Amino acid sequence: MDRFALYYPHIHVRDDSWLKYTALYWPKMARIRPPGYPLQDSPAARELHAARWLLDFEPPSRAADEVAEPFLELLHEHGAALRYRFGLNRIETWGLPIADACFGSGGGFSAGGEESTEDSPTWLNQRFGYIHADRISGDLLDSAVDQGLALVRPGRGGIWVAMHPQLATVYMLALAEQIATENCLHPITDQTLPHAAMSGWTFERLAAALLGNLPAEASAARPAPEEAFAFLAFATVIPADLRNVPIEKILEIRAEFGPELDGFREFVADQVQQLGAIEDVRDAGLYQEYLHTEVDREVRTRLNDLDDRMRGAGLETARAVANVRSVALPPLAAIAANAVGINPALTVPAVVAGCIVGAPLQWRRKRREIAQESPVGYLFQLKRALGPDTLVDKLRRTWPL
Q1: Domain residue spans in the chain?
Q2: CB within 8 A of 308, min separation 6: which ones?
Q3: Residue in 164, 169, 139 with CA at minimum distance from that of residue 151
């Protein structure tokens, strides 16, 4: 079973180009939306929401309860150290420029619990990170407030909890992982978040992340192998920026090439298993080089072979049409008429015209068969739909497909 994606840390996706890439790969994407929270989705997100690709579900309280345990232990064991680093009374010592204190810029939640608006309450300080109160257990919230690490205020869409952006970041990473584990989801984000590569948010890992005991190379964010491999494969055939591609085109591709997408996802899963050896590579640059090398070897080679097969199929079809025109027409006409039940009284030009008109349909069927046989057939279809012209495209335009 293919897992759905889980978007975090926000409710609203920040990057439409990333959203379209994601919609081209994942079966569906869920997001955590508190009850009654007013949506301000982009037009692309609204279309995907209406198509039931983008799904809303309420924050599960059990996940917040599970995540609360190691955080409560951390507050009990290291309360003084946390207050010294993240205490609200020390906000002037946080050293966070306003632009860096928002998740949209790589830090915590932006003011107002997502976006600043003209009617946002004046108490909202842009240096805080914000989490909706529905995402935090009551015990953890009370303890954080008592320790001077958080404050609670009303905002757009409900009650919000303000805290140091790094606290908000680490908490949302832990919550997203817990929710994903409970619901067979794969957490993904369009943000660059510290510690995103970590897993298993135990007491020890929380202490390492928040109190400075984590090795620097381990804190660098890097995407999961599945996401990285799939997106690098996409980059071989389609533009990096999909903002100008209509979302209707993305939905059309998903609807038309479902079997090819299924085959491609299976291919990526197989490749990720084989990439297990590089999971322990610490250097981010080397990790990326390994991924690029594997994509070049496993994807580009298959795409080149597929292109060759497609060109061969097109040339075979074109050659067949040319042969129709060169064969002695009367015998050919009679044979063709008898074979397909055409009235022999039809003129020879009509039969030839029928062969020519039918050639594109035959080629299209053959091309679809070839694409579905290849693990990178979906990438070939994406290149046709979204990429620059190729020889196959130029040949295809000689017929009205």
Answers
A1: 61-218, 259-396
A2: none
A3: 164
